[in-house]
Specification:
The structure is a homodimer.
Chain A: E1 8-11, H1 16-28, E2 33-36, H2 49-54, E3 62-65, E4 68-71, H3 73-83, H4 94-110, H5 112-115, H6 117-123, H7 127-149, H8 161-175, H9 184-193, H10 197-201
Parallel strand pairs in A: 1-2
Antiparallel strand pairs in A: 1-3, 3-4
Chain lengths: ~220, ~210
């Protein structure tokens, strides 16, 4: 496939959804540019009219790639999977693919949207308990599922989109002071995955827009 | 054959019912009443099917899958029949983007569990998140839609849209403010697969809500 301009990721260092995309790019060995969108500064740069043209939902990530703009991290990642060579991000077996997607969606629909910045700003004073509640609820479900599906990684012994979703969600859990030790399979998988290069180079602590006080 | 554990009025369960109908797949339904008995999804028995204690959960080919979009993509990948995703990767990305906007960006913020937690302000909360999502979806669909959400073939995007419009109407959102959404929904609800799977005519539809 002819390489034209590099993909451009509009994201935020600490956005777990942006991190998913960064991991996928890293796993596939794809070079890309980053345009930081600071979700806090200036009242939230995702709320500008300019960003709205990229993603009317006014959320990160939004990715410009191959002449189109895609929002929704899992749509971006599956597009990358379907158009770029390199290590598979989904297994070949349909039942395992279903398990990967189930885990991804448990996180991407069942946990993260309930604890993202927009929602917790709306919740107000009770935000930490709210976020903890939904993360714990999700992890209480994810733990027995992963006990069934996991080998070395979330589903069997190959890295997949499930792992891509898990690590940033554990990071979020830790930010909200959830004790991940209560979920031994989640903990074990996360510890394995965070040592992998693609997960390290994409980590929030070392992005172009990581503030100095949070840099690794 | 497959067994769908769902609820007549669950938009996520409806998505799966539409997919089965589009593919011409016969299946059994085991109703899970989300209100009765404190919510049948909260039983230990159902928890073994889906630890997240949500509908739908589908038993198929010897496994149990939860998360409606995972179920639907499994059906797509294992059953013949009309495609639920286009062949072109860019169009597939657009379909998934629309599905995820609904399935991650709208529905989880207005499902039963969350609005029960919100309490007294629940209607305004649900309206807020539906309106926010539709305000984003409208310009996206204006770009991507032909006869259907993405081009001129029915896809998972249409499967997600119709149940979400139903939810919007339940919460008294004026869908007329979103002309592309309205137009697409009006086209889709006339299609057989969307009609037979409608909440008004399921095995567990209460008498007072039957069509």
């Amino acid at each position: 496939m002819a390489t034209q301009t590099k993909p451009v990721l509009h994201g935020y260092f600490r956005s777990s959804c942006s991190w998913r995309v960064r991991i996928a790019f890293a796993l596939k060995g794809i070079e890309y540019d980053q345009v930081p969108v600071n979700l806090i500064k200036d009242g939230g740069q995702q709320l500008t009219d300019k960003f709205k043209t990229l993603n009317p939902m006014q959320q990160v990530p939004a990715v410009e790639i191959d002449g189109i703009t895609i929002s929704q991290s899992l749509a971006v990642i599956q597009y990358i999977e379907e158009t770029r060579p390199g290590p598979r991000l989904l297994p070949t077996d349909p039942k395992k693919r279903a398990q990967v997607r189930m885990i991804c969606d448990l996180i991407a629909s069942g946990i993260q949207p309930l604890q993202n910045l927009y929602v917790i700003q709306k919740i107000g004073a009770e935000k930490v308990q709210w976020a903890q509640h939904f993360i714990e609820r999700g992890f209480q479900a994810l733990e027995p599922i992963l006990k069934e599906t996991a080998g070395k990684y979330c589903v069997g012994d190959e890295i997949s989109m499930a792992d891509i979703c898990l690590v940033p969600q554990v990071y979020n859990a830790e930010r909200f002071k959830v004790d991940v030790g209560k979920y031994p399979t989640i903990k074990r998988l996360n510890q394995t995955l965070i040592e992998i290069e693609a997960f390290k180079v994409s980590h929030p602590s070392c992005q172009p827009d990581t503030p100095a006080d949070l840099r690794a």
